[in-house]
Amino acid sequence: MITNHDQHWMKQAIELAQKGEGHVEPNPMVGCVIATDDQLISSGFHQAFGDSHAEVNAIANAGVIPDSASLYVTLEPCCHTGKTPPCTQAVIESGIKRVVIGSTDPNPAVNGDGIKALESAGINVISGCCEDACSQLIAPFTTTIEHQRPWVIAKWAMTLDGKIATRSGSSQWISNEQSREVVHRLRGRVDAIIVGSGTATADDPLLTARPPGLRNAMRVVVSSRAELPLESQLVATASELPVLVTAGLGTDPNKISALQGKGVEVLNCPTDSPADILPLLMTELGKRGCTNVLVEGGAKLLGSLFDAELVDEVNIFVAPKTVGGASAPSPVTGQGLEWMNEAHQWDTTSESIGNDVLIKGRRCR
Questions:
Q1: Which CATH number does 4-143 carry?
Q2: How many whole angstroms separate alpha carbon 292 and alpha carbon 362?
Q3: 155 and which of 29, 180, 246, 315 could share a cystine (Cβ 3.0–4.6 Å)?
């Protein structure tokens, strides 16, 4: 039976797990608390990829563990040897008699076997405590396991009337400085930053985090014809941080050679359909170990991703401005849906960032 005390301590474990964001990928974020009903004994979280797991850290920090203590962990303990020994063995050897788990591990190498190992050792295991929150915590990891592709975050800034630029194309700056700092922190924790060739050409972005973040993201340009100007900032910095551009059938081989000569990697796709390139790209990024990717536009690319149902999360910065104009662009184009009752539903939260509002949403599956 899951008690109020169990939920209290699991919520603390969830907060701890989030400290690993950007450090632990491609592993999932995991937090662990050892406590009696009314007393915290110790805690730990998975701090970096390849380092000790949350349970091992919490046990190491505990000292003497009372018989009445329970171990609370957001994810089922692993039972196999990878970069570290199995956590189930550490839990068993600690003498803990009760373990409360948030979510089972979607990894086929675990997936219930960790629970079985603990129960076989005589430990009372309770699973499903704060399960929804714990499952949300590992959603990117689950996506890589189940779909062999990264978790896709779509980001854009827009005015109150839903515009990403004026009718003349002016777009700097829609959001405030604080919002732009949030974007740089987001860039610093993902594995790839993706734009369309139109955005790469029109805006000439660097697509880097300032200051440098926890991860050095690959910069990716989606194009059916490897359209990336040789004089762009992306090409100029390709030797410092990787740049990947897609190329469909019929791309000029001279264009490919010129980009490769500048240090740009070209991903040749066996299709000339822009819509078909996106699933191929996401599969390729998944093979390369990408867990989280950030898509920053433009509207055509975002529309294609929504049409293909490849967007898992949105980060929308809304500025208290209006610009109007029938020809002023909106953030998402694409084919779209015909009927409102087909609309995709999202679980959303919102927060104020100065006078901007950040709306975060996760797709309801």
A1: 3.40.140.10
A2: 14
A3: 315
Q: What is the pTM of this model?
A: 0.91
Q: Under CATH, to which class is 148-363 assigned?
A: alpha beta
The CB density around residue 306, as the number of other CB atoms within 10 Å, is 20
Mean pLDDT of all residues belonging to the chain: 94
Contact in structure between 223 and 232 (CB atoms under 8 Å): no
Give domain limits for the chain. 4-143, 148-363
Question: Is 55 considered catalytic here?
Answer: yes
Structure tokens at 5: 């005390």
Place of tokens 């740049």: 243
Cα angle 44, 46, 50; round to 5: 140
180 close to 323: Cβ distance less than 8 angstroms: no
Determine contact, residues 110/79, Cβ cutoff 8 Å: yes
Cα–Cα dist 324/165, whole Å:
10
Cβ count within 10 A of residue 97? 16
How many other C-beta atoms are found inside a 10 Å radius of the C-beta of residue 241? 16
Classified as helix, coil or strand, 121 is coil
Digit-coded pLDDT (tens) for 40-81: 999 999 999 888 999 999 999 998 899 999 999 999 998 877
Distance between CA atoms of residues 243 and 302, nearest Å: 20
Of 55, 227, 296, 313, which residue is the catalytic one?
55
Question: Two tokens at 88?
Answer: 């189930």
Q: Rounded to whole angstroms, how far apart are CA atoms 209 and 212?
A: 5
Amino acid at 118: L
